[in-house]
Write a sequence for this structure.
């Protein structure tokens, strides 16, 4: 079945360092969404990418959708302690309305 | 506009009891998804419902689990005869439309502990 993998699984960075998480799908995606989940919290929608090669920015966050629409990345510039949490990508399964969530990348930022 | 509401936030059940989890979607949303999250793991899709309809239940175990979304009232995820392996966080999310391009709004979750 369709799988969505993310690497790395964990990342510890010093405050101020950059961070990148990569999302890879086994199948082509019509769109991809990114969510953030703080420790003990619930997932919160960050952004959606639809077009091949699309790049979107939100302040220090840069999201990219691959040309083949099978991979995506989230890059955070100059991390802050408020960036702590787990970042998930999610894509719809082909022919259905359900989303497959990636395995997630847990980010810890050391002050 | 109130967000997605879930209750209870924490639920403790003994093995063999029933767990009933409730989810009220955002106002105007008629589509609800249920997910299960084990500690340190990702979100696993369980079921997708519209009002009075189960659209996709392919992620839900065939036995002991059921879900409904009646015309009036919240969506309910029911787990009968709970076992320790059912301990997890259960999140529901709502969406305004069937189109998967819409974002999902998640509730705060119900943390189920089976003793």
């Amino acid at each position: 079945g369709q799988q969505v993998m993310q690497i790395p699984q964990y990342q510890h960075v010093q405050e101020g360092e950059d961070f990148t998480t990569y999302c890879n799908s086994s199948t082509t995606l019509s769109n991809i969404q990114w969510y953030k989940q703080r420790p003990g919290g619930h997932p919160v929608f960050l952004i959606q990418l639809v077009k091949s090669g699309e790049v979107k920015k939100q302040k220090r966050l840069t999201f990219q959708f691959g040309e083949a629409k099978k991979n995506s990345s989230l890059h955070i510039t100059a991390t802050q302690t408020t960036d702590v949490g787990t970042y998930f990508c999610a894509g719809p399964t082909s022919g259905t309305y359900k989303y497959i969530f990636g395995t997630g990348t847990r980010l810890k930022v050391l002050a | 506009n109130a967000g997605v509401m879930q209750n209870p936030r924490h639920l403790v059940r003994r093995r063999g009891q029933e767990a009933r989890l409730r989810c009220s979607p955002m106002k105007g949303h008629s589509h609800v998804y249920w997910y299960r999250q084990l500690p340190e793991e990702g979100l696993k899709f369980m079921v997708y419902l519209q009002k009075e309809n189960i659209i996709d239940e392919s992620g839900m175990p065939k036995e002991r689990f059921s879900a409904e979304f009646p015309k009036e009232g919240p969506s309910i995820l029911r787990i009968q005869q709970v076992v320790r392996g059912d301990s997890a966080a259960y999140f529901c999310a709502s969406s305004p439309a069937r189109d998967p391009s819409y974002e999902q709004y998640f509730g705060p979750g119900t943390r189920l502990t089976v003793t």
